[in-house]
Design a protein that fits this description.
43% of the residues lie in helices and 24% in strands. It is built from 9 helices and 9 strands. Strands 1, 2, 3, 4, 5, 6, 7, 8 and 9 form a 9-stranded mixed beta sheet that branches. β5, α5 and β6 form a beta-alpha-beta unit. α2 crosses α9. The protein starts with a helix and ends in an 11-residue tail after the last strand.
């Protein structure tokens, strides 16, 4: 009888442990209240992971905004490198009742192997026959920035070896270069430093979060914005943005 009781107790404890594990997983999932579609960015990713309460969906800036306007997500994270485009996007978002919050400024550029062995200095070098490029996916803000630079310099995309080869994050671009699958790709400065790559400055850009009015005063969203601004103050290639005068002419 004692042996039977002990086995029953162990079985009960095992079932209780499984039940607790199930509840624990449920609580973790339940915490993910808000859906955030955002362009690939290490600061955004780290902020979401540290504070919790958000489901992060990595998407290009264009796709993130489209999902927000279609009410598929609650918040969109996007970056823009020129004031005229920013004003057009802001006008559309505001017409749909959306609120826009600037959170940080970051540096975009070319990532290359340590020491820059091929001597890449600008977009014009991408057409050299021995240089292999790795691109970001269509719809991403980084891809748009590249295409703008190519147009400005009169460069045809077809003349760049690897233009059609795509990755979806800055880190994936860095990994391709480290693996010697490509010689150069675009990304943020912090990812280049983190992976021991050289960085060639190209452009500053602002990063924004957009959302409906009902979320603009939400405490968890405010916490996320504070976290992004705080982290961006301490990472190379980033600056915290929160004052209207810092984005004068952009919205």
């Amino acid at each position: 009888t004692d042996d039977f009781d002990q086995k029953t107790m162990r079985l009960g404890q095992s079932s209780l442990a499984h039940l607790e594990e199930g509840f624990s997983q449920f609580r973790v999932k339940a915490k993910k209240q808000w859906r955030l579609a955002s362009s690939s960015d290490p600061v955004i990713h780290r902020s979401v992971m540290e504070i919790g309460g958000f489901e992060l969906i990595t998407a290009g800036s264009g796709e993130a905004l489209e999902r927000l306007l279609n009410y598929e997500v609650d918040i969109a994270g996007f970056h823009i490198s020129d004031p005229s485009s920013s004003q057009v996007i802001a006008k559309r978002l505001k017409s749909e009742g959306m609120q826009i919050f600037p959170v940080m400024k970051r540096v975009q550029g070319f990532m290359v192997a340590k020491g820059n062995p091929l001597g890449i200095t600008s977009a014009k070098d991408l057409v050299r026959s021995r240089i292999r490029f790795i691109n970001r996916q269509k719809g991403s803000g980084t891809r748009l920035l590249l295409d703008t630079l190519l147009k400005k310099n009169g460069i045809q995309a077809e003349s760049i070896k690897g233009y059609v080869n795509e990755e979806f994050t800055h880190s994936a671009i860095a990994m391709s270069i480290l693996a010697k699958k490509a010689d150069v790709g675009m990304g943020v400065k912090s990812v280049a430093i983190e992976n021991g790559l050289d960085f060639i400055y190209l452009k500053d850009e602002f990063f924004f979060l957009a959302m409906g009015e009902e979320l603009a005063s939400n405490k968890e969203v405010a916490k996320l914005i504070r976290k992004i601004r705080s982290l961006s103050s301490d990472i190379p290639g980033y600056k915290s943005v929160g004052l209207k005068r810092q984005i004068a002419g952009w919205l």
